[in-house]
Amino acid sequence: MIGSSTAESADWNYGRREGGTFIVVGEPLRGMSPGVAGGAVAQADAVTSLPGGRPAIAAGAVLVVVALVAVGWWFRLRRSPAARFRAVLAGRDEITVLLHPNPDPDAMAAAMGVQALAGTVDTDVTVQYPGQIQRQENRAFQTVLEQDFEQIETAGDLEADSVVLVDHNEPRGFHGSDAIDPVAVVDHHPGSGTGAEFTDVRPEYGACATILAEYFDELGWEPHNTDGGPSVSDTLATGLLYGIQSDTKRLTNGCSPAEFDAASFLYRGVDEERLDRVANPQVNAEVLEVKARAITNREVRNAFAVSDVGDVGNVESIPQAAEELLRLEGVTAIVVLGRRDGTLHLSGRSRDDRVHMGKALKASVKDIPMAEGGGHARMGGGQLSIEHMEGLGPGDGLTVPEFRDRLFEAMTGELQ
Ligand SMILES: [Mn+2]
User: Fold this and answer.
1) What's the CA gap between 382 and 362, in Å, rounded?
2) How far, in Å, from the CA of 244 to the mean position of ligand 1?
């Protein structure tokens, strides 16, 4: 067992999600006892009246059948989410595990978990994703843990008709995604997406990999099991732990007790050498250069910073520079801008409750034709055409230095 708190939260979850089913099926069961018993008595009476019958044996047999049915129902109701999920997988010859666009280590780890589970019930698995696997950590995850995930362009590229979603609950980000009706959903994001046969969404959890780790625990699998029992492989344990770490800033942010329990459960199978290679991959020189330019070129006003890193080859380096700069002492909100092919890319980070970064970026690109900006309170992004900004507006057009002023105004709330 992982630990009592996990068991509690899993039960609580199970009860909450399946509350309706519990009541619908449970009530008739409870109500059934007298009713069925009555029926049995009536049948026993009927048997008694049969000439030459053996009423006591017949009545006993009926009661045994009733008891077996009740016990059967009880077991079905008590079945863990893990066992129900495995039964859904067992009912298919092949499935596609679908990741969200630009999948992260948590999504990839959860897919590995589903793959391992499906392997024990002879179900073929293809893991597929829209978008790209770009960040160094995400590429390192795939390489070091020897995973082969397949990229898709449209719903027509899906390998199997039965789709299992992990780490998101509604398919998105590719042509035809709207029409997909997943058979199962395992996720930790808020949302109303469900699977036709199985749904396990726990928004209070810090990672989807935690849920998979719990499944293995519930099914009696052990990490690094040397006594021949069902085993969570070292590769899988390492992947699941890194999935949890990367979604929770290494267990410092957005955790529930379940993440600590799962980390403890997985510990024995974790391969530290490979975990280190995934967590600390070699960094591309350009990313370091862009970070260096972001530090050198920063302009700080009060606690806010804006930094223009100029032309970049890979736009992924811009958010990484923003994350780096937010670590600077005294700076609580930061926007980094960089250029590629005539487009200005923005990436903002905030650890200041006064600055809702998504709203600030949205305000900063207001009235600029075809520009986009938005995001969450602590993280946002945007892009705009420099030609449109300079030539078309707002007003008579803006230069890049004037746009920097706008970013400061948006962060202080002067521009809304
Ligand atoms: Mn996740």
Assistant:
1) 8
2) 8
CA 88 – ligand 1 centroid, Å: 22
The sheet with strand 124-129 has its strands ordered as 150-151, 124-129, 94-98, 163-166, 184-187, 198-201
Q: From start to end of 117-239, where are the E strands? A: 124-129, 150-151, 163-166, 184-187, 198-201, 222-223, 231-232
Q: How far is ligand 1, taken at its centre, from the CA of residue 247, in Å?
A: 6
Rounded to 5 degrees, what angle do the CA atoms 267, 273, 275 make? 60
Structural domains present in the chain: 14-77 (no CATH), 84-279 (3.90.1640.10), 285-412 (3.10.310.30)
Ligand 1 centroid–CA 148 distance in Å is 19
Ligand 1 is an ion; its neighbours by CB within 5 Å are 106, 167, 208, 247
Distance 231 CA to ligand 1 centre (A): 24
416 residues of the chain, pLDDT tens digit each: 454 333 333 333 333 333 333 333 333 333 344 444 444 444 444 444 445 567 788 888 888 888 888 777 766 656 899 999 999 999 999 999 999 998 999 999 999 999 999 999 999 999 999 998 988 889 999 999 999 999 999 999 999 999 999 999 999 999 999 999 999 999 999 999 999 999 999 999 999 999 999 999 999 999 998 888 899 999 999 999 999 999 999 999 899 999 999 999 999 999 999 999 999 988 888 999 999 999 999 999 999 999 999 999 989 899 999 999 999 999 999 999 999 999 999 999 999 999 999 999 999 999 898 899 998 899 999 999 999 998 887 778 889 999 999 999 999 999 88
User: Rounded to the nearest whole angstrom, what is the distance from the C-alpha of residue 208 to the centroid of ligand 1?
Assistant: 5
